[in-house]
Amino acid sequence: MAQDRNTEELIIEAAKKIFVQRGLAGARMQDIADEAGINKAMLHYYYRSKEKLFEIVFNEALGRIIGRLGQIAIDGELPLEQKIRGLVESYIAGVAETPYLPIFVINEINQRPDLLVQRMQSLSGFSNIMSFMKDVIEAGKRGEIKQVSPIQLFLNIVSMCIFPFAAKPLVQGVLQLDNVQFNLVIEERKKLVADVILAWLKP
Amino acid sequence: MAQDRNTEELIIEAAKKIFVQRGLAGARMQDIADEAGINKAMLHYYYRSKEKLFEIVFNEALGRIIGRLGQIAIDGELPLEQKIRGLVESYIAGVAETPYLPIFVINEINQRPDLLVQRMQSLSGFSNIMSFMKDVIEAGKRGEIKQVSPIQLFLNIVSMCIFPFAAKPLVQGVLQLDNVQFNLVIEERKKLVADVILAWLKP
DNA sequence: CTTTGCATTAACCAAATGGTTAAATCAAAT
DNA sequence: ATTTGATTTAACCATTTGGTTAATGCAAAG
């Protein structure tokens, strides 16, 4: 079950699956080895410790979540409305590809905030977010949109995009939605979330 | 350090703190015992197993989160706008009292969705949520608000109220907010989130 | 064919962990 | 004072878990 592909990659793939599913504390090295179809000792041969392996998986996940946030300011030329519509749609679509990443990242950061602090500066999306906020302030001054706190705008967008995934089982339980219905709701949100934000921003 | 108060309560208090902080997999019985200032064996004397103790803590936390959601439909006489303003304010205030509960509950449900299914029916807030949804549909038909999916309305409110807490360290890291600034942002949201929702609902 | 160096495995280890037990302590009733 | 029942403790146990090691497999270079 393990011969074909590169062993290192096999391990990372397996580690991703197990860590994201169970978290650092809940993940077992044996389970990762089983998932990869190899011996447990191989994990330590290629990646020294559970911690090291976890850091690789976590940092990639964090980059994926925050990196996506960076998309918030691309397409600098478009009017803010188009920018927001495009952002929401692509962000929801992006998160939907790996719906369990947000809760994994959020939870691990919650237990060890230092995981974030280390990587903050080096993450690409960061400066884009700042320039987006400046855009919002400028547009507000020009009267194109209502004057709002860019931080709150940012929080509102991210909340409505990510939370339904982070709380997916809770949402499905409370609202009695099967997977098909849940996906329909998500699909509808790609437009709807932007509608909500833009209605609020109307001057 | 343990004599004064009821031992059972001391244990529950300690278990709450440790479980909410580290999750089921990350919590150690010894840590709970230390936190309560008692012997580890006492945990098993009063509550048979880690699982049993966890269930008590988790169910109370779940009730607190979902129970609050039930507030969504109280004050049945008020107009929908007042209802929503009151709901958002009290919900954010409620979550702010125990900001780490959402991520705890969400994360544990994520790893064991059965935890939710068991308790769903018996949770009080549930029927209130349903009746709130009917109210929304009625108000939409009467033209008091725009006709929107009550599920989406519900998701939007809950997302904007809960997510900032669930992702608190991530939010603080990305937006460079210290605790004081974070609390100010939250305070501002008690009104702002309702503004966003009501702007969207305007017919 | 032999050597060399990486890859892989099985067996093993020490520490941690959830749980148990038998003895001791304590408070109230007799 | 003694008995009785619940409470508390220290020592112990079996299993799990992250990690190590020594031996083996194996493919390419000599």
TrEMBL record, chains A, B:
Keywords: DNA-binding
Residue ranges flagged as DNA-binding region: 28-47
InterPro entries: Homeodomain-like_sf (IPR009057), HTH-type_TetR-like_transc_reg (IPR050109), HTH_TetR (IPR001647), Tet_transcr_reg_TetR-rel_C_sf (IPR036271)
Keyword Signal recorded: no
A GO MF term: DNA binding
Domain HTH tetR-type: 5-65
Pfam families listed in its UniProt record: TetR_N
PANTHER family according to UniProt: HTH-TYPE TRANSCRIPTIONAL REPRESSOR SCO4008, TRANSCRIPTIONAL REPRESSOR
Name of this chain's protein: TetR family transcriptional regulator
Source species: Chitinophaga tropicalis
